[in-house]
Amino acid sequence: MGTSFRPVAAALLLCLLLPLAFAAPNDGLVKVGIKKRKFDQNNRVAAQLGSKEGDLLNASVRKYRFRGNLGDSEDADIVILKNYMDAQYFGEIGIGTPAQTFTVIFDTGSSNLWVPSSKCYFSLACYLHPRYKSSKSSTYKENGKSAAIQYGTGAISGFFSEDNVKIGDIVVKDVQFIEASKEPGITFLVAKFDGILGLGFQEISVGNAVPVWYDMIEQGLINEPVFSFWLNRNADEEQGGELVFGGVDPNHFVGEHTYVPVTEKGYWQFDMGDVLVGGKSTGFCSGGCAAIADSGTSLLAGPTSIITEVNHAIGATGVVSQECKLVVSQYGETIIRMLLAKDEPLKICSQIGLCEFDGSRGVSMGIRSVVNESIEKAVHATSEAMCSACELAVVWMQNTLKQNETQEQILNYANDLCDRIPSPMGESVVECAGLSTMPNVSFTIGGKVFELTPEEYVLKVGEGPAAQCISGFTALDVPPPRGPLWILGDVFMGRYHTVFDYGNLRIGFAEAA
């Protein structure tokens, strides 16, 4: 989950789903089926389900290792997943003996397992979902250590317990999990799932609890330390996808996977190259960007400057930034002159007095005031907004200058982009009738271009005249050295079958079938 990501509640961000690889009935694969439910306007708030971006940056990033030939794995398990409006993917697990059934999101962006507890008395959400009853399980072991997890749009707290967990056809013994005794707010009240099962690494696990899939490997329940998933983006079909532990299902991808190494510990993070819009380079990640494959995020999250350009290209409308327009009108010509004079782009905004930093840090320090605290806060907020707007304008103008545009064209383009900045809630709307005219958006991974069509990166809400189309791109700004950072969520993973190869510390992508 993330750290300082902006809440992207309306952006349909917390959807986890891990596809599983298929194999013959006796191949030993652990398969978890993914199911889905149709996305409708009335239940749209359910998609806001605790978008985890807000916590993603607070946790450290870790590396992983996998071994062996994924296709030859003999011991694996497959979980059938459900798909809720292409925004929530979830499957069923059992906890305890006899097993108590829960619907969970399989999330590669977090590492803990939690479900509502029978000891949750004062949160309405707990009463609308199944609750774990330790007294009903013969394999329950008391732990009692307190725990709390804060997501982007929701939080849970409770205590650790230990019990057996059934995933697919296997039973994992003595799993550490959190009994949630508090689930405040509306986030989990309207969620279509009961809890979350994290597939990230122990380094980002709350309480340093051992992740369930670590236990699978340690207990010899799967031969290959690999899991993979296929997400079905057709919300009208009953099966939402599959999550496979121990291998891959060749029926759900075509060609070969392109593998890239995991670069940081914690999340499934790797290096990504240029981002293309309509086949043209945006220039922003040509020198490389970090990216995370996250089944717990519905959309594609990236730097505001590039997301704004993408939204401009697809005609998405966000919230108009008056600060942005003010910077373009008052400082646009100055910024262009300084870029042409080969001034260092990172220092331009500080040189013209809109930011207070030396170019070595990715965030503004703000402007201090000697008056009372409320005025100081207002001044600080205004200065931050102007600084951010200036930084965006510099990136846009720098990219446009490379195309030999005139000064007037550059200023008009930047001014137009101001209208495309994503809203504070992250959501941007596009015209459903305009999908055929929108450009493809591509990501360069491992030297290969992975393309998304408008039909794949736009989420449709509702049917008929009342239908609304949501851009699959939302803003996320992470300063160097950790950023720029992209989160490739279900919009991307739905198009590309994804393998998480722990033994070889790598992630693989192939065309989904």
From TrEMBL:
Residues 1-23 form the signal peptide. Disulfide bonds join C120-C126, C285-C289. InterPro entries: Aspartic_peptidase_A1 (IPR001461), Aspartic_peptidase_AS (IPR001969), PEPTIDASE_A1 (IPR033121), Peptidase_aspartic_dom_sf (IPR021109), Phytepsin (IPR033869), SapB_1 (IPR007856), SapB_2 (IPR008138), Saposin-like (IPR011001). GO terms for biological process: lipid metabolic process; proteolysis. One of its GO terms (molecular function) is aspartic-type endopeptidase activity. Residues 89-510 form the Peptidase A1 domain. Residues 319-359, 383-424 form the Saposin B-type domain. Keywords: Aspartyl protease, Disulfide bond, Glycoprotein, Hydrolase, Protease, Signal, Zymogen. The active site is at D107, D294. PANTHER family: ASPARTIC PROTEINASE, BETA-SITE APP-CLEAVING ENZYME, ISOFORM A-RELATED. Belongs to the peptidase A1 family. This is Aspartic proteinase. The lineage of its organism: Eukaryota, Viridiplantae, Streptophyta, Embryophyta, Tracheophyta.
